[in-house]
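Render this sequence as a predicted structure.
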Amino acid sequence: MPRQLRREYAGAIYHVMNRGDRREEIFRDAADRRLFLAALTEACGKTHWQIHAYCLMRNHFHLVLETPDANLVVGMKWLLGVYTKRFNIRHKECGHLFAGRYKALHVEGSGDGYLRTVCDYVHLNPARARLLKGGQPLEEFPWSSYGDYLRPGHQRPGWLRVDRLLGEKGIPRDSAAGRREFARLTEQRRRADLAQEFKPVERGWCLGSEAFRQELLAAAVGSLHATHYGAERREVQTSQALELLRAEMQRLGWDRAALRRASKGDERKVRLAVRIRQETTMSLKWIAEHLAMGSWTHVSNLLVVERKRESLKSENRHLPQFQPQGLFVEKDNRVKGLILGAGRDMLLG
């Protein structure tokens, strides 16, 4: 089953989401939701997680969490395992509750609005799912951290951290006035068309700047497997291929103009094309375009010739090397004498 790329590091922020097996209910009533929040409280105590937002729907949940220690995987394993066990005991059932691996979207915490986007996505989830009727305010959905943001700090869970989201919304203080402004801004967002802004949250694997994305891709090289999602795998492979190209151009002292000036069949380009094909999954068309080698069919022909050449060299290296005995050869390559077995003495005499 396809998996997401994940990178654990201290201070990482993730949007975590998981659904019930076969999209069945994971929360049947308020008691189940309290059970989950109790398990989340314990998990945060064990892992030191800081939760920026949460929302418990009927058949799935959302968490925006920060890991001061690099422990997302072990913490989620504990949380999901413990809640599943307690759910099954309460309902006298057994077996899986969740649909495989949870989704974990990497979120950049630079203060440039990415945390705000993903927290708004979570807090607006009940409204977008049409669970609020007749213009009900968001705080009337009781199983979300949105209502906690509108309460004084001593009435919130100890693991809920509000300062970063307030800061990204331009609210300087967690005061009564600040909380009213938070409600006003969130309701304003509720009325806006956020489909395009929320699309990377729903379909992407990271939410952040291009520099943040490239940093994650660079860290993923070497830990990529065939079971990872195709889109993520392609991004990592592209990043790796571009790095190979950059390093080789630097070694050769080439810039883009020099690369284009070199002939399409330049042996240095061919060697690099071989490496990219061996070490990544980039297509011949990609190689032809980025190495200025003409058409993909031309690249294909060059690689076939290079493989045959390397194969012939390899065969020659493994051929036995026969050394004729009794053969004396002068520098001018003329045979001066031949010594053969029993006639040696006669020839020498």
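Summary. The chain has two domains: 12-209, 221-318. Confidence is low (pLDDT under 50) at residues 225-229, 326-349.
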